[in-house]
Amino acid sequence: MIDSGLIHLLTTLGYVAVALFVGVESLGVPFPGETMLITASVFAGGTHQLSIAGVIAAAAAGAIVGNLIGFGIGWFGGYALLRRFGRFIRLDESSLKVGRYIFQRQGAKVVFFGRFVAILRTYAAFLAGVNRMDPRRFAVFSVAGGVCWAALWGVVAYVLGAEISRVGTALEITFGIIGGLLLILSILFVRSHVSRLREVAERAHPGPLEGFSD
Q1: Residues with Cβ within 8 Å of residue 39, at least 6 apart in sequence
Q2: Which residues contact 150 (CB under 8 A, 6 or more apart)?
Q3: Which residue, 20, 70, 95, 196, is most buried by CB atoms nearer than 10 A?
């Protein structure tokens, strides 16, 4: 996990590099944000050129700002694209209502716990925006998830130092397995209850969604 290129960026840009890497990953671009957080924390513990409090604060700020931007992109851009082109990938209005209903009911869990799972960490904010999750609720759980994630990985990497390469890989595998299982179970649940979900979502969002009556 300790990358010499990231170390070089840390020595030149410091906390800005941490915030940028985490922020880019959080707005929906596959990027080594978590790797940068871990590298910066180990670097802080080994050299004391950075403080661990500063690293955690920079990572949390990047996560929060990136998530807000990703949410906005999903809300204003992603939703408009699905309205126009969703039918080409079999995402009709009924399917979007199901997604919106799920994010209304379980969006807080997706946003908070998604911060600890690689794929969800990148796309959760965008999907929350696309599915019109309540912005204030999103902001609350985005802040909570970003702060907890940054503090957990920051402290663990700072304390364990070089050992994080071994422990961190095990933790990533564990989180990945848990996240994958939850994703598979969610897909199976949706598929087995799709008719029921469509009915419930329709009752929750009667009539056409905005943009579909054009």
Answers
A1: 1, 2, 3, 6, 7, 10, 157
A2: 22, 37, 56, 57, 59, 60, 63
A3: 70
**pTM of the complete model beyond 0.85:** no
pLDDT(214) > 50: no
Tokens encoding 52: 């661990």
Two tokens at 173?
A: 């595998």
Residue with tokens 């802040």: 143
- Rounded Cα gap, residues 89 and 64, in angstroms: 31
For residue 76 the two structure tokens come to 């204003």
> How many residues does this entry show for the chain?
214
Phi-psi region of 207 (alpha: psi -120 to 50; beta: other; left: phi over 0): left
Provide the 3-class DSSP secondary structure of residue 160: helix
Contact by Cβ (8 Å): 101, 201: yes
Q: What is the pLDDT of residues 132-144, one digit of tens each?
A: 899 999 999 999 9
